[in-house]
Amino acid sequence: MTTIAPPNSPPALSHRLANGLTVIGEPSDAFESAAFTLLTPSGCRYDPDDRLGLASLTCEMMLRGAGSRDSRALVNDLDAMGVEHTETVGISHATFSASSLADSLEPALALYADVVRRPHLPADQLEQGRQVCLQEVYGVEDEPSQKLMNELRRQHYPSPWGRASCGDEAGLNAVTQDEILAFQASHYGPEGSILAVAGRFDWQELLRVAERLFGDWAPTPLTRTPPNRSTTGSRHLPFEGSQCHIGIAYPSVAYRDPEYFQAWSAVGVLSSGMSSRLFTEVREKRGLCYTVYASLQSQVDRAAVLCYAGTTAERAQETLDVTYAELIRLAEGVTVEELGRLKARIKSALILQQESTASRAGTLARDWRHLGRVRSMVEVGELIDAVTADTINAYLAKNPPRDFTMVTLGPEPLRLK
Amino acid sequence: MTTIAPPNSPPALSHRLANGLTVIGEPSDAFESAAFTLLTPSGCRYDPDDRLGLASLTCEMMLRGAGSRDSRALVNDLDAMGVEHTETVGISHATFSASSLADSLEPALALYADVVRRPHLPADQLEQGRQVCLQEVYGVEDEPSQKLMNELRRQHYPSPWGRASCGDEAGLNAVTQDEILAFQASHYGPEGSILAVAGRFDWQELLRVAERLFGDWAPTPLTRTPPNRSTTGSRHLPFEGSQCHIGIAYPSVAYRDPEYFQAWSAVGVLSSGMSSRLFTEVREKRGLCYTVYASLQSQVDRAAVLCYAGTTAERAQETLDVTYAELIRLAEGVTVEELGRLKARIKSALILQQESTASRAGTLARDWRHLGRVRSMVEVGELIDAVTADTINAYLAKNPPRDFTMVTLGPEPLRLK
């Protein structure tokens, strides 16, 4: 059997600062660029129930001036460094990602150190920030597929694990300046934060820079919010339009679970590539959909397979029936041929991913968050090599797709037969 | 001044087969992967007015078996090669793009040679293919921002240059099997086709493979469809919902125009990065939008700047007024500081792009299609180095944004003041 592990895997190194911040690096001279991902434990799970959107609005405000730079100087300097960057708020973490030429790595890190440690949070820009966040909430209302998948996660996961980080209108309107100051002070700290860097840089130099920028960052006590209630249940969202959007979720195993790669491969047989079962049965053979997919979404302590299909209202029940039949049929097992095709796709995807510093930095941070360590490419390769049709089928026999949550959005409700 | 041209640019090589197919390559041992883009002159501009969607449906059918492989074997083999691929139909060309490990380059090329030269076009799958294409058309109806931008291009460009390649319901329903056979036979040929490859491969070996796979591909006469009528004009699309979507287009210069980089840089000052004018004035200072942008879209013989802003109905007129004021103000010129930031972003983006074989292959094909040759990274660097605030401002003085087309989608029409 061909091994999956790619050649020339660079080493992944890690170091924990005294205050709890973890630094991970995968240096490689094959690139001219460097990318980093900075995770902080500041996600929307910490939003009070009547302040949904607080974490997102705080993050929006943090970019409006930090350290020695006012709002204008901050965005000017970031652009002048040639940095491609995104800031997103998830369930548990906020993520600050940046890619640039290697020369800009250090100044970009210094700027983001200001953003997370010394943001100005200007009170006189709060209303503008609030409006931007409200526009995001209103925008989702008009995009049915996104609205559906937000609702599916909300219905499937116990709260707060299914929240949409954008929050809601009432919550965003209620947030005060003091609440933003308090959220920032208590949820941005070194403990539980992860800085992952990939691409062209020197590891020892990075450690010196990280120590200088983050070494004196005082820890804040980590607030743990246990799941406080379950909102699981299927529902229909009435929506005028020619289309029906269907979402189905069922429980799976998390990334850190020893059986993760079994579950993940089973979903791959269902939905990865044009030869996958959903693509074949729903799209190719019956022409029911333009878009249909299933994906395994893993949080640290829970995971779900999320499926989507969008079709016309008149073909919606048939689309649901065929999709659902494939989910049920998965429990009967996968074939050696299906797994062979999937492994070829995985091997290729791993190597393509390795050729992007941004995606490597994201994976390093993800590994640390889920596992508390970095899996080398060799180890990932070995784990995938060890997956066989038999091991997947043993997993599926014990864990057949079941306990479904369904959300539909369209003119009429549908029935899960 | 720092030069923009990145170091270590690999060479771009080209060769024209006797039948007219152009092969372009940029070999580099820095990668484990290889990617290709195959362009064929088979876009939706060739759809008869009462068969809109013919090119897309033909492309959909071509993946359903080709050469020695039936529909099932084709998708199975493609997945078994570990190929990430997309097939898209544009205005002038169909594009077949694939990325994989270097080992899979040759078999993937052989498979796509079958697809474009020897597709089965199975009559017994026509209805399924038609349904898939119809589902795409219906889907756009429910996604307001996409629907708006499709309509903006349709209203702004003379027909057929603003078409949405997905076609329309009437056209797709009318297409016959014979029309698909005829379209495929007359619009897929070597003349005007371009094969661009980037990543790990040997140039001489690629030429041997290309000769073997495509050398005996018989030319078909290229049908030229001149613009046949203008449909330019602003309009409002009534749409129930809380949001208003605003699209504005104005003419610009094409990629092959000597002044392209002046026009492109001006749009960059308007919309590239968080410090850009639209982001600053519309989003940051006033909180009017979550999403606002302008981009220069270039076809071979024409180009336009396309702007989008999405907001709530009640803030729509203000959003339009502020956005429009920025377009008008652009004619007054850009500053040295704005251009400095933009150049830093461009330099970084060029190098990041160079680290992706898929994006390099796409750029090589694009260059050849627009210019009839490949611009080296050094030449691109020199062209951008030569742009100054003065040269941009001289261009803007001669070519101020004007002759606007506006399309709005929302509960009420708006007024361009």
Automatic annotation (TrEMBL), chains A, B:
GO molecular function, one term: metal ion binding
Listed SUPFAM superfamilies: LuxS/MPP-like metallohydrolase
Domain Peptidase M16 C-terminal: 175-344
Record domain Peptidase M16 N-terminal: where: 32-155
Superkingdom in the source lineage: Bacteria
InterPro entries assigned: Metalloenz_LuxS/M16, MPP/UQCRC_Complex, Pept_M16_N, Peptidase_M16_C
Pfam annotation, one family: Peptidase_M16
Gene3D superfamilies: Metalloenzyme, LuxS/M16 peptidase-like
Residue ranges the record marks as coiled coil: none
Protein name: Peptidase M16 inactive domain protein
Species in which this protein is naturally found: Botrimarina hoheduenensis
Lineage, uppermost ranks: Bacteria, Pseudomonadati, Planctomycetota, Planctomycetia, Pirellulales
